[in-house]
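Translate sequence into structure tokens.
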Amino acid sequence: MDTKALTEQLNHSHIFNEGNPLAEKRTKWAVILTVITMVLEIAGGWIFNSMALLADGWHMSSHALALGLALLAYKVARHFASDTRFSFGTWKIEVLGGYTSAMWLVMIAGLMFFQSIERLLKPSPIQYDQAIAIAVFGLTINLLCAWLLNDSDRHHHHHTHSQDDKHEHKHEHHHDLNLRAAYIHVITDAATSVLAILALFGGRFWNAVWLDPLMGIVGAVLVSVWAFGLLRDSGRVLLDAEMNSPLSKKIRQTIKTGTNKALITDLHLWRIGNSNYSCIIALTTTDNINAEEIKRLLEQHNELTHITIEVNREKRIYF
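Result follows.
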């Protein structure tokens, strides 16, 4: 490998390993705020005999644990950033954190469902005014945490771009899955807080005690939908299930249109960053085309960071 290629590889290695410091900082603040609110809701639910508020507090405690897990994933990824055992960096540690958080969400949804059924069968009196005030405070904190963890306009903060960067990293379509997991946790907290407030208002003004367990069941369904979506996306990355992605088709089309007599006999594609891919391509051709020419053809796909080309030549048969 020449000096230029080696330098480029090291630069990409740095990009993959430097982590997401802004996301880590925001997740830390979300953990602190969530723990404070959790304690307040559990105490308020116990004192004012609000099962809805108490359930929301315990629900928030599980999210505090999941947010802590997300924060730990960032720290571990940063700690092992220079560890040479990780061929393509430590990004998948963060994805693994997102997957684990999704598993927590599934268990939380099950707990919410069974608690709601129990409350439906055994209703108890509630001090509504105090419980509503605490629930509104909890919702406010959840919305603040959601704002902190929303990466829609921050996910590309740690990448620099230049006119000469042939592998410009585009993050418009791939967000941080670990941060997304943390964001979904606080959004589900906000949703359950809204449902708890509606149930408390219904019980306070219309004596509709059945609203409390009904809202719990609805919340469990919402959490399940979000959790399975996150499991699907993070699991796909962890299992390298990328061969049906649009990029795979684009690679085949680029090589087909750029060369007359090159046939792809093997293609492997997997993600090594939020929107960075590595690929191995085996070609069979009767032309004198070489691996460097194929790489130049693929330069238009900025998502491809590491490319390995194998060219096998067939002998021409003359009649």
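Note: The chain has two domains: 3-238, 246-313.
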